[in-house]
Amino acid sequence: MNQKVELVVLVADKDMDLALQEILKRHQAVGMRPVEFQVWPHPEHDPGCLRTGHEFLRPFAGRCAHALVIFDRDGCGRQGLARETLEEQVEQRLRESGWDDRAAAICIDPELAAWLWSGSSEVASALGWHDRSAELRSWLMRQGLWTPKLPKPQDPKRAVREAIRQVQKPWSAQIHQHLASRVSFRNCADPAFGKLLLSLRRWFPPRG
Question: Is 193 in contact with 23 (CB distance < 8 Å)?
Fold first, then answer.
């Protein structure tokens, strides 16, 4: 592995892989300095990140400054536990496998699509609704997929699936990649995303 890599990120799937690469490239928007990084999808997806992420990352502990493990609560196999509990379980195993306090776990509740619903007009465009953000939200409410007082759909993944089906747009991992490269991070109030930004800013503060 390249010795210059400062951050290794273990993710659950290709969607997260593409999204995280775009987020890390936007270091100024994150509020961190640029870093050399590698992103690895776990072959066993969300359950693999939860159960054996520390084993996957053990060989990197002596060669990388920091590590992240990012996975969905939905589909991880232990959905009955709180997001914070799942994160602490992974972080404890990471500490015991050589990372000490140099690693963090990010459990997205319920899953990655929760980060997509940021309130930006870019979301509607990425889902094929092109400059019809208000119309998309109204349509989702009429379908019972978005409760009016909530900041995002109660089932983000289903809302994405139904929205793109309505306009006959095929699903692609590039949808998350597109949004990660364009949407303002300030509009995302998701706690897991907030933890991601805080971890990156703490580990890699801007120079000067």
Answer: no
Beta bridge partners of 9: 39, 68
Residues spanned by CATH 3.40.1360 within the chain?
Answer: 7-113+177-203
CA atoms within 13 A on the CB side of 43: 2
Q: What is the pLDDT of residues 135-156, one digit of tens each?
A: 999 999 999 999 998 888 989 9
Supply φ then ψ for residue 10, to 5 degrees: -105, 125
Choice among 56-60, 143-147, 149-153, 187-191 with the minimum mean pLDDT: 187-191
Comparing CA positions, the residue from 186, 159, 183 lying closest to residue 171 is: 159
Q: Give CA separation, 134 vs 124, 171, 206, in Å.
A: 9, 21, 36
What the block records as the tokens of 8 is: 């290794």
In the numeric block, which tokens belong to residue 180?
């990660």
CA distance 39 to 184: 22
Pick from 160, 165, 74, 154: which is nearest to 123 by CA?
160
Q: What is the CATH number of domain 7-113+177-203?
A: 3.40.1360
